[in-house]
């Protein structure tokens, strides 16, 4: 069996409606978009890169992903977020202003040229930084994401990074 990095009993499934992977525990019937507590994030990252990004990339290359874009984002949740918890932090208590300050620090590092991408430099840091989640979203089209996120993502050119984007989920930096 292929190692996913997920805790025992958990598996990766694919949402047909969102065209995104999610995590499911058949024993408890629990499903979630974020990896469950106890996940080996490095192993999961390798598994997802190998098993959940190839077909989408191939379909885009064949012209079948017309109208869709692919993004990654760094999300910092706060206590007013739609779900103020994550697999790393049971209850997120930081204010929205504190979440924005955290993202401003990352944004400054990108603008200064210290780092060039949202996803690569922050993956190792997010494991030790509760409430910060770096996610490769994959391909999505119009009317599939929260409006603020979607508008910001579609306004970017490939390789560009957004300013801070505020949604019901938290605050984001988005890289197309």
From TrEMBL:
One BP term from GO: regulation of macromolecule metabolic process
Any Gene Ontology CC annotation: cytosol
Catalytic activity annotation: [protein]-peptidylproline (omega=180) = [protein]-peptidylproline (omega=0)
Molecular function GO labels: peptidyl-prolyl cis-trans isomerase activity
Domain of life the protein comes from: Eukaryota
Coiled coil: none
Entry keywords, A to Z: Isomerase, Rotamase
Residue span(s) of domain PpiC: 66-176
Pfam families associated with the record: Rotamase (PF00639), WW (PF00397)
Protein name (record): Peptidyl-prolyl cis-trans isomerase
Organism: Aspergillus sclerotialis
Taxonomic classification: Eukaryota, Fungi, Dikarya, Ascomycota, Pezizomycotina
